């Protein structure tokens, strides 16, 4: 905790490390109250650096002894300034021996070495290794590690670290040891150890080159009935990376370890991935379809990092998207390939677009807006964002759209050929893509440089006589903090033209036939393309498959949208047309809601929804997405001044109206999409459950005895968590008299399952029927615990971020609750606190009365004496002009 003004770090200030580290030998005497760490490393002056001092970072550790080439250094031999330890006058080559002490059981930040349920874990990305030992803790310092772990055998029977197990044995006095060696050079952020009482599911798996690898999933005793899906996902991931990218597992052993105390989803430590239990543990009784999907994606993501992140890593943290954007793109493609069908692919793509709109576009338009490759930061942990991850993945996807799947693969091959074993930049990746394909991708750099979501508009003109269709695109990008003006982006726009029957027209541009979907490349602020041989006035389907992360200001008429919603061959744009039909109406309703007591919805819209709901030729998963309304957050993003209550009333009205007017069809779909027989998380079955449960939720948006009975019956008979949770939510939202008893029964039954208890809290926190008094009551529940990030998020963050109408209560009580808990959490875990702090990002867009309350709450946090850099950066940027 620092009280002085935090330092801003700039990308342009990068200098190479003064010394490189060759080998690191770490010795751990593990004790929760006092762990002694011995670090012996060989270092060598970096010929690329002008600097002569050895620079080591250390944080929250006690320095016991420091030796250079065997000589004990005295205090005058080095300087400590904050977290930086410098040793001047060091020789070209040296052996450093450093002894430090840390206190894992008091480490509530979950960064560095900490205990969770009595077990030891580490988390080193981004800058946690310095909380374990003094080290040049920056990703461009790559070294080989050998690790000796010593601990009490009874309490910590399992001792794990990166790479291969060299030897293990007894030490006497009840202690034992294990020695691990990682054959690959790695940056310190990929170091990991686990010392724990755990059990594992294991399997040997034949790799493409014929080697056998040992795969293990480690969990607490009693959870071995929940590891199958993670193991299967790991095997699928290994296979996929071999087949799609020719990338093999490079170790003989690959371990996944689950912990219940974790700041994020999971961590790709070399050979020893550490996971939040949320992304490992699943069986039908406790996990929903969404949970199963999450596990598959995160297991794949961490595994894929082994090449994109570990073998080739980041030169500095500004390059974070080099590994994250690319790895998210890879896990997205994996998920799509796992489903296999083309609508299945589209369904995953729609999920991705949904995430962008729900979270990334708002980030890009708010006070924390930053480029995919940021120019500066105060606290790097604040930059593990949807922009770096999801927009970063969109940027990678655009290479594939521009170069084709094969061209992209060529670029990947060249990237690994050039950079295996190196710490590189986003420019290096772009250069590999360009060189492998003989393309100039200079302008494409702007996707890395410029923050903000580009806005795209088009005007089209059909010339019947000439049979041409001209379409002019205009692109612009709004200012973001520090970037008042933007230059045009290189934007791939996939486009198709629909005829009157709804069929795709063959496309001809400049005399060249381009199938039925053409990828236009926009590079200027204004650009025109002309299609020839166009037999009739078409309806353009623009930005197919969401070919670029932009906002398309469409200008479509209702009848164009209905045409696209009925016929577009591109399922993503078909869905998009439905979202636009709904959004237009939601915005109108939002304007009317505060004044009118009689809202209404036109037949045209209801009929379109009815056709979609009952179109048996379409996958249930797709129909569910097409019937889901834009969220309250998305509606709010379209408004100049947000009245959350009006938005909520408008959306609730629409849901209830659909529920009432499509009642018989919804009931029929509810029955038609049952999934009898044993539960399976596959996409087909999950899609049916999703549509069935959406029907249940619409029916209960206009509840009566029959709809409530339906939900209650499902709640009492469900044999899987997807159906159980969906029906319980429906009862809560319908304010059913039976909801409370069902909530109690749910808790009773699942109180031993931490992840289900999280759901129990989250379900209540997200319900518009839960007010601040109820939240405070839940905080006093014996199962609530602010120290556990999953639990804190399930109640506090869910309330502040997923219950807009209650959070934004006119008296400001939600904001005071926010300020109080950001402050409390900050003293325990700055990373978790800073994420919660971002609930206020968009405060300037609310009504003046709400703004005033929000500002007060922000100032209350900003005025705290002791505040982490993490939270300070967020609230300072929120309050800045
Ligand atoms: N690199 C990890 C991933 O994307 C995430 C990560 C970064 C992380 N920092 C962390 C996880 C801190 C836990 C704690 O997979
Ligand atoms: Zn990642």
TrEMBL record:
Which reaction(s) does the protein catalyse, per the Swiss-Prot or TrEMBL entry?
A: Release of an N-terminal amino acid, Xaa-|-Yaa- from a peptide, amide or arylamide. Xaa is preferably Ala, but may be most amino acids including Pro (slow action). When a terminal hydrophobic residue is followed by a prolyl residue, the two may be released as an intact Xaa-Pro dipeptide
Identify the keywords attached in UniProt to this record, alphabetized: Aminopeptidase, Hydrolase, Metal-binding, Metalloprotease, Protease, Zinc
Q: What positions does the domain Peptidase M1 alanyl aminopeptidase Ig-like fold occupy?
A: 452-553
Domain Peptidase M1 membrane alanine aminopeptidase, chain residue ranges per copy: 229-447
EC numbers, comma separated: 3.4.11.2
Which SUPFAM superfamilies does UniProt cross-reference here?
Leukotriene A4 hydrolase N-terminal domain, Metalloproteases ('zincins'), catalytic domain
What NCBIfam families does UniProt report for this protein, alphabetically?
pepN_proteo
What PANTHER family would the database entry show?
A: PUROMYCIN-SENSITIVE AMINOPEPTIDASE
What name does UniProt use for this protein? Aminopeptidase N
